[in-house]
Design goal:
This protein is of the alpha/beta class. The relative contact order is 0.22.
């Protein structure tokens, strides 16, 4: 059925449920896994202010270093969990993209045949205000998506 599963994670507790579910599915199917963690671009609003040219450089460096460190920690845990279950897995950290864009690009580039991701399941105004990367992935992909709540 599925041979290569992409599991997206932001390191949150909810995403952890998606990781666990995706790994159990991969184990049962004998599928390989690619974990992806996405770091969004440095917030544009942070560039404001009279001292922006002087301060932003340091803030940008700190943001990128912190994001890389966090991604490394998240992905190492995912890889450890996969190894413990005997699931062949690789990890990818994608920088400076929106999560939906990076997930879709990675799924295509890695020839994944299933995407697993978690969702809060927000509706209405909450979804409009907060956005939904999961909804965007579901609406733009031709690859099946398993949404874990």
């Amino acid at each position: 059925m599925y041979k290569h599963i992409l599991i997206a994670t932001d390191g949150s507790e909810l995403a952890g449920k998606g990781v666990a579910h995706g790994l159990e599915l991969a184990k049962g199917l004998g599928a390989t896994v690619t974990f992806v963690h996405v770091t969004e671009p440095f917030p544009a609003l942070a560039w404001g202010g009279a001292m922006a040219g002087y301060v932003v450089g340091d803030e940008l460096v700190y943001y990128e270093e912190s994001a890389r460190k966090y991604a490394r920690e998240v992905l190492e845990k995912c890889k450890t969990d996969a190894d413990a279950l005997g699931v062949s897995a690789k990890v990818l950290h994608i920088e400076n993209k929106t999560p939906a864009e990076a997930i879709l690009d990675t799924a295509g580039a890695e020839s994944c045949d299933l995407i697993v991701m978690a969702s809060h399941g927000r509706r209405g105004l909450g979804r409009l205000v907060l956005g939904s990367q999961t909804a965007e992935v579901v609406s733009l992909t031709e690859i099946p998506v398993l949404v874990v709540r």
